[in-house]
Amino acid sequence: MIIEGRVRVNGKTVTELGVKVSGEDAVEVDGHLLEQSDQKVYFILYKPRGVISAAKDDKNRKVVTDFFQDIPQRIYPVGRLDYDTSGLVLMTNDGDLANKLMHPRYHVNKTYVAKVKGIPESNELERLRHGVLLDKTHKSSPAKTKLMSVDKKKNTALVSLTIHEGKYHQVKRMLKSVGHPVEKLKRETYGFLNLDGLTSGDFRKLTNQEITALKKMVAKK
Question: Which ranges carry the Pseudouridine synthase RsuA/RluA-like domain (predicted)?
């Protein structure tokens, strides 16, 4: 194809075999721009319940990367959502950004909406705002919390909880510690990102402005 003059790099026809290109170069074949496999890509996925937040699963269960079969890059989730938790998962192949976003020192807020058993009292919500013991030795950081709605007939409530930590089963453990086990859980936001316009199983690319803003979030400290 090169000898036939069908390949162009950055708008110029290439005739020499063995010319090296990088991920920054625009490569065209027969006028069609090729996607570079090492190009950094960023997506928001609305993860359904019953899906593993991993690139693969040894039990052959559905994983988040199954939704991206047509994406040439090898992408992976930033952090994890429990198998039975739905909501926003950030997907990328940018390892540097992923590691920074997951590091506790950057305090990236994540908001969850939980359906809980019982109706939380104001003093129980106040305990969550000050941090609660997750076990005998570990206490959670303070959380923003709000009672969204109640169902007195079913004795359940919807509670919004915003945290920046990501300990194992953290939201479930926090709500259980104040006497309100979680029946259903969804992550609504990750930093400034949300699920607007998406339904369960959908995904979309981040805009350039969103990518820049994410990088700025972890460049401050």
Answer: 42-176
* Rounded distance between C-alpha atoms, residue 35 and residue 48, angstroms: 28
pTM over the 0.70 mark = yes
DSSP-assigned letter for residue 190 = E
Interaxial angle between packed helices 95-102 and 208-217, expressed in degrees from 0 to 180 and rounded to the nearest 10: 50
Q: Tell me the Cα Rg of the chain.
A: 22
Position 184, amino acid: K
Provide the annotated active-site residues.
Answer: 82
Grouping H, G, I as helix, E, B as strand and the rest as coil, residue 156 is: strand
Runs of H (alpha helix) within the chain: 95-102, 122-130, 170-177, 208-217
Question: Domains in the chain, ordered, with CATH?
Answer: 1-34 (3.10.290.10), 42-105+196-217 (3.30.70.580), 109-190 (3.30.70.1560)
Q: How many CB atoms lie within 10 A of CB 123?
A: 8
Give the tokens for residue 68.
Answer: 């991206």
Q: Decide: 92 and 43 in contact? Cβ < 8 Å.
A: yes
Query: Strand, helix or coil at 90?
Result: strand
